[in-house]
Amino acid sequence: MLLYKQKKNQSAKGNRLLISITVLGSAGPIRFVVNEEELVAAVIDTALKSYAREGRLPVLGSDLNDFLLYCPSAGSDALSPWETIGSLGARNFMLCKKPKTEKIEDDGRPTEAIPRKGSGNWKAWINKSLNLKISSH
After folding, report:
1. 45-71 confidence digits (pLDDT tens)
2. CB neighbours of residue 105 within 10 Å
3. Which of 55, 56, 69, 112 is in the most buried spot, having the most CB atoms within 10 Å?
4. Degrees (nearest 5) of the Cα angle 78, 92, 15?
5. Residue 11 has what pLDDT?
6. Pick from 129, 127, 117, 60: which is nearest to 21 by CA?
7. Could you tell me which CATH number the domain at 14-98 has?
8. SS (HEC) of the chain
9. What pLDDT band is residue 136 in, cutting at 50, 70 and 90?
10. 8 Å CB contact between 89 and 36
11. Per mean pLDDT, which range of 25-29, 80-84, 116-120 is the poorest?
12. CB 60 within 8 A of CB 30
């Protein structure tokens, strides 16, 4: 009963939004309702849980710190985890894994982290996919 009252009060605070989150490499977007005042970090967490519950592939993991949320209509920068999801007025987002870095040691000294090849952003992945489709025709 207490949980029900809390949820009811939360929905009274702000507007609720139906959002779509596309995961790179997955068959289709995940859709769910969020409060517009919810933080991006919480939305990423909800998306990962929903993705896993649906048994989607590829398996992503559950650490929200390993992911970035993009709004394709707002530019190429990832959203800040402390930003509210409704701040951009957008409903469609893209979830990507953060690029992994590998440390290379030279003479026993750790050097600067170097990003792995092929760990580009979502725009590079889309362009690559489109080029494959065009060249196969």
Report:
1. 999 999 999 999 888 988 989 999 999
2. 8
3. 69
4. 100
5. 46
6. 60
7. 3.10.20.90
8. CHHHHHHHHHHHHCCEEEEEEEECCCCCCEEEEEECCCEHHHHHHHHHHHHHHCCCCCCCCCCHHHEEEECHHHCCCECCCCCEHHHHCCCEEEEEECCCEECCEECCEECCCEECCCCCCHHHHHHHHHHHHHHCC
9. low
10. no
11. 116-120
12. no
> For the chain, what are the domain ranges?
14-98, 100-137
pLDDT score at 50:
94
Tell me which residue of 63, 94, 64, 99 sits closest to 76, measured CA to CA.
94
Q: For residue 72, what pLDDT is reported?
A: 87
In sequence order, the 6+-apart residues with CB closer than 8 A to the CB of 20 are 29, 30, 31, 91, 92, 93
Higher pLDDT, 9 or 27: 27
The neighbouring-strand residues paired with 17 are 34
